[in-house]
């Protein structure tokens, strides 16, 4: 009992903040041409992008941020999405899923620095590029110093800036840099850039202001003149976005981050770490396009070629563009991005590669200050080298890769290497698409690393003994040379390692395989355990900072946190299957997820024990579907007369009145239109133009009779010269339908697919309208009404629903049980609602990410909106490859209601849908907050 109490008390300790960013007092943030500094200490900012708005379960933010930290990142880059917080002018919400202070507090607790990116424009493949859709009706060019736009964005910044200011490192928080605008590269207005910065300063922002430039050398880079920022960075997407061809290599260049200012660090502001799925290849292909080979060659090349000390990898976890978050042209619901952490928060081979590189970047302090030096020459010109050195310690970092990055040949050669400790002939091999960063002249704890052709994963010092992990490709030769004043004692504990001592050098030769272990003691230095692994075995290690110094843990699928208290090492860790845990820490007992682990002391001086894995889970079948029909333009309430004759959009309508949905305050999702006219009886054709964005469409009924559907106009229609006939559909009127002199009712349902971005800062794309662009029924004079969302869902917000009758009436919500019927065998044309319920009984100490999966039905003629407990978790639509819709814990609970709102252009059958588990992780009780 006492042990249990002690363990519980110790588990309480793990919530204590660990690293520098989390302290309550303020710190000084500065920078020079090498790096950022915090209180004078150099910091390599190794960060990547996370979108809180793409994970509408704040209880899971910790999970993702802990995973990011565990891979060795010390920072995150965060966009803040204006439109996500502002449904209407003057209205802002920072509660619940929008509670960004909660997010910032988490980063502080976890010791992650934040690059805050509040826009106002963010791009990010989200609707309007982060602009609220109401901005479309504001006069004045967006992304300029025009007064109309200025007044609008100041509203947003006056809300978000004070929050960010409170959380700056200078006030004891985590925000270390403030990113103004986003890739501001065309149609630029320097006054606007300057005003954004003046605004930030006036709102209390005192950390360095940065900007992410894009598009190479042709465009403004904000490094001097009006609008210049302190630390201009560069966005680089060398692999581009064609996931259909994941074997491509460097379509958009070398990916070497340029130095933009002599007095500021080199900043890789957004460096490609995944891809949008532009060509419907599916995100696994995007993960391949940007996989470990690419990461090795491009990231390592960039580190050495550019000397960048600030990185923002885009994305680390992409998430879900739930509701109406997606921008219509480039993406669909999933924003998995082929990232290192999947949409369902799973860890991938890319995560392992990030860990291998991240541990190097954040362990090896001399990397924060380096200059280019002459590299060691390779004997074979097929191999390319490039090098940097720290001017204070002389530590060298040498990149080794193929001279032709595209080749995947197997080349072995030698380097003629003048290290700080003497000249050596060093064997190297590059096999396949690969690159290595080799280190020489490095004080590794109490050791002196002369050189190694293995790469350094990391090292820690535990009770006066150095523990280091080096690694190389499986089966490749390796050599490591360490310096001692006299021959040390060398004991090979595992694997095959030959050692020789000559001069003052201990040389170890081996083949990378499994995990070799060597104990070195004596020789005038503290003892060392050197572990020599492969890519795979190195990735099994986790390095965690504790108040007692960094510790190493090997085995678990994830280590979330570590604390040392007395003789206890207290860990929070995940297991995907039962297996070994090994710890290297100043502690004699190990507690994992609140349980004492039975351990034994190993010959390596570590503790080893076993952990069990998750219990298998079964998910319920989806059955007993109920049904409800939504007749065209159903119901009499909620309609708005559409009679405007002017619009702020630069794209003017084909017929009047203006029928653009935004003009009537209906900004997201489906809208119904109802037009009435007095029929002559001779009408032949209904001609419609609509603009919906890619994959949008509209359906037309006359007097309740379905006439057909057509695709809506797309972004391309807004490129000059603007298409005057976008999304055209002509529908013949059946001869018997209209009686002379009768009142005819035309009903049109338009599925608007979100708003274009404003990449070009010229308004024509972003302010391209949504909805009907023009309608004629021969010469009839039509009176119009429009009905969209009723915006009364404060919890889920304005991006959750559109104007389907069922959405307005709450049919998507869990508590509406009445008047549902058994589902018919055939789904009719038009709007149908399907509903079922299911119960989840998942073990509280396991994380089981769940998705609803639709069966394949490539030629289907419908789209379905997936509502889970009222949350619109995406759109299953024709012409998009997505079949799995991830449903995060928090959105899911124990009792669940799944509602599909279906819009069919032809009668048919709904694809079968079922629940799938996308993982099963033992996490321990508190790791994932199931309540969201
Ligand atoms: C960048 C942009 C990001 C995102 C990315 C592509 O150019 O800054 O917001 O759009 O491209 O995914």
From TrEMBL:
Segment forming the signal sequence: 1-20
EC number: 3.2.1.23
InterPro entries: Betagal_dom2 (IPR018954), Betagal_dom2_sf (IPR037110), BetaGal_dom3 (IPR025972), BetaGal_dom3_sf (IPR036833), BetaGal_jelly_roll_dom (IPR025300), Galactose-bd-like_sf (IPR008979), GH (IPR017853), Gly_Hdrlase_35_cat (IPR031330)
Enzyme class, UniProt record, top EC level: hydrolase
Keyword set, alphabetical order: Glycoprotein, Glycosidase, Hydrolase, Signal
Catalytic activity: Hydrolysis of terminal non-reducing beta-D-galactose residues in beta-D-galactosides
Domain Beta-galactosidase: 365-541
Similarity comment: Belongs to the glycosyl hydrolase 35 family.
Protein name: beta-galactosidase
